[in-house]
Amino acid sequence: MTNFFSRFSGRNSCLGVDIGTASIKLVELGSAGGKVELKNYGSLEVKGHLDRINDAIQTSSLEAMDKDTAELLKTLIESVKPGTRDTIASLPVFSAFTSLVELPDMQNSETAQAMEYQAKSLVPMPIEKVHLDWFRVGRGQDASGVKQQRVFLTAVPKRQVDKYKSIFSEAGLNLRALELETVASARVLTGGDGALTLIVDIGARSTAISIAQNGLLLHSAQADFAGSSLTQAISRGLGINIQRAEELKKQKGLLGKGGEYEVSTLMLPYLDVILSEAKRVKESYENAHSIKVGRAVLAGGGANLLGLEERASDALAIPAVKAEPFEGAVACPKMFSPVVKELGAPFAVALGLGIRDLNKQ
Ligand SMILES: Nc1ncnc2c1ncn2[C@@H]1O[C@H](COP(=O)(O)OP(=O)(O)OP(=O)(O)O)[C@@H](O)[C@H]1O
Ligand SMILES: [Mg+2]
Fold first, then answer.
1. Which end of the chain is more exposed for a tag (fewer CB within 10 A), N or C?
2. Is 234 among the domain residues?
3. What InterPro entries does the entry give (predicted)?
4. What domain count does the chain have?
5. What is the CATH number of the domain that holds 280?
6. What is the Rg, in whole angstroms, of the alpha carbon atoms belonging to the chain?
7. Does a structural domain hold residue 326?
């Protein structure tokens, strides 16, 4: 069993880099006296991503921006000027195969062997072409009292990992680890919290839906509707260009009145598809594990949509709140307080990556 990269310790600062389809986000985190603090952050929009919303063929935008990514990263580093080059970066949900496996409790070395064996039947790719990673998410007993463990398995094509390695080395960054975006958001949004949580990360091109608890990812899925679907609906409905529709969406959200009411009416059918997909994921997890999900946390840029919390609470039938990583896992210095409310949700993944090895010390 190979881990993507080994964990590194003894460092007191690290970069978390979230490569999304609409933007690249970077945070620099530092740790001192057991506390992790935001030192700096930055994000760059992927050029032309709004123009590509209307693409007939939804190419994986990751492919489209591949050659530009290293350049964007260099620009971001020049403007943020971080004090370290050590980086942990995100992999999109669609790039990996994941599964929650139940098996008898045993030592780590034996679990590693068992997971490799399990992976051969679970992963829909030749095992020699993927990087396997696993972590234990819980221990318990089966009906006959035999000790069991639940292990989360991730398999990522080696080709994908190699591509990222070369992009980051081209950008002059020291790539310490690659991690699934949902693993990172689970860590930062549910760390130290025993409540079973549904995380809905509404990005530009896709929505990552996951179930997490105590900082650990238990299940992750993806919906193809996201923020750009809402922008597109406004653009089509009002006959305005994508840029203007994007502005209107951010300005009015679901809270418009009178003439503005139309903006929310246009978005709601698409938003409801996202939320009903999230509800389906929640209910299928609840049914499979005979357990109830207690709350929802909304992340990604799309979580900044005005009025979303209320709509989501109704649709999901559980309290839904916007992600606030700066209220828990990461301290935010006063100089950033004017933007802290808007920063938490879109930067959740980057923050979760950044704290991965810092809070192990
Ligand atoms: N204030 C706001 N109100 C509504 N939507 C917003 C707001 N701010 C950002 N968004 C939307 O959030 C989306 C971008 O989110 P995010 O930055 O999380 O995407 P990404 O991570 O690049 O994309 P993906 O996760 O799909 O690869 C865009 O669709 C943008 O319009
Ligand atoms: Mg994203």
1. C
2. yes
3. ATPase_NBD (IPR043129), FtsA/MreB (IPR050696), PilM (IPR005883)
4. 1
5. 3.30.420.40
6. 20
7. yes
Decide if 8 is inside a domain: no
By most ligand atoms within 8 Å of CB, the mutation choice from 49, 68, 205, 251 for ligand 1 is: 205
pLDDT digit string (tens) for 208-245? 999 999 999 999 999 999 999 999 999 999 999 999 99
Q: Whole-angstrom Cα distance, residue 41 to residue 351? A: 10
CA 208 to ligand 1: nearest atom: 25
Q: What whole-number distance in Å separates Cα of residue 82 and Cα of residue 79? A: 9
Instruction: Tell me which ligand sits closest to the C-alpha of residue 223.
Output: 1
Please tell me the residue having the least CA distance from ligand 1 atom 4.
Answer: 305
Query: Which residues have C-beta within 8 Å of that of residue 129, sequence separation ≥ 6?
Result: 157, 158, 159
Domain range enclosing 121: 13-360
What letters, b where the CB count within 10 A reaches 16 and e where it falls short, cover 201-227? bbbbbbbbbbbbbbbbbbbbbbbebbb
**Residue minimizing CA distance to atom 25 of ligand 1:** 203
In a domain, 229, yes or no: yes
